Each structure stands twice: as structure tokens, then as C-alpha cells.
Amino acid sequence: MKFIIGIGGVTNGGKTTLTNKLLRTLPNCCVVHQDDFFKKPDQIEVGEDGFRQWDVISALDMEAMVSTVKGWQENPIKFARSHGVSLSPEAEECGSDQKGIHILIVEGFLIYNYKPLIDVYDRCFYISLPYEECKTRRSTRTYTVPDPPGLFDGHVWPMYLKHRKQMESQCDRIEYLDGMMPKDDIYSVVFESIQNTLLNNL
Known about the structure:
Elements: E1 2-9, H1 15-25, E2 29-33, H2 62-74, H3 76-82, H4 89-94, E3 102-108, H5 115-118, E4 123-128, H6 131-139, H7 151-170, E5 174-178, H8 183-201
Parallel strand pairs: 1-3, 1-4, 2-3, 4-5
Helix pairs in contact: 1-8, 2-3
């Protein structure tokens, strides 16, 4: 059984923290991080707002991301091995006939804004944060390409609002999570929801 979980959300909402916890507790679980598909800085356009457009879908190589997800769908065991993921003894014994449960987490900030990806998810989660908390968290993070002054208000937050509206209009299966909740509580809600879905599909 193959199962794909989307973990989306606002910047600094706790997507990676949640994903890493799930990776440690779900069986035969792999992850595809959307952030791994950013184009090189010199390929990122400067927009009318005066900032490099990092927070838009064109800043990402989405075709490569989709083909990575398809690679997992075609052979989750081979994918897991090539990504250094430990498989359960049952999955190892089954070999290429793909028996057992195999889970892929797709994690990122625009994973519900690209039509070819929307239909692959079995469960969709999205972490939200209010403006002030999001801005505070973002200001404490260190990025490879540092945020220039004014980026959050001038680009990041307006793009978040725009993409969230777009996402809500094209994906109606999303379960929203309050990013202000303790991280363990967010994890518990998601883990229980996934467990119930897996049990219902066995």
C-alpha cells in the first residue's frame, strides 16, 4: 500500500519539524522537500516589488519535483534505499513486489499550488500562523541567501496571502493546523489522522 501525505504551510510554520517527527515514527517513510527544488539565485527574477521572487512557484523546478514523486510511486523500496531510508524487515523481505505500507511525505510551502501534484495526495495538511508570529519566527531564522530588509512585508507575506487564496480555490481536501499549538500537539493530531486513514485502508 502506497500513501502520500502533503505537509504544507506558511513559512516558518513548523513543517520541517512535523515532517521529521513523522519520519521517525511512520513505517517505511520517505520525504520530498520542496525547498530542495529551488532554482539557483541567478535564475530568480526580480519582481515589481523590487525583490527576488523566491516565494512564487516559478522559483522552483516543479517538473523535477513531480518526477521525484513519480520515482517514489514507481518503486518506493528502490527510492527508500537510494535515499538512505531504513525499511522494515517485512518490506525488505517483500523486495520488489512492494507489499506492506510505504509512505511518502511531500513537504513545502507551495505544494498545493501546482496542479500536477494536487491529485497525488492521500492526505493534505496545512500549518497556519498569524502575521506577527510568522514575522517574528522568520526574523530569527538564518537563510543561505539572507532576507534583505523589508522582504517579509514587501514580498513574503503578500505572496503567502495570494497563494493561500489560490490553494483554497483548487484543493478542498486540506486539513488546517494551528501553528500556534505546541509542536507535540500538532504532531499528535497529524499522526492520529494518518493512523486512522491507514487502518481504514488495510
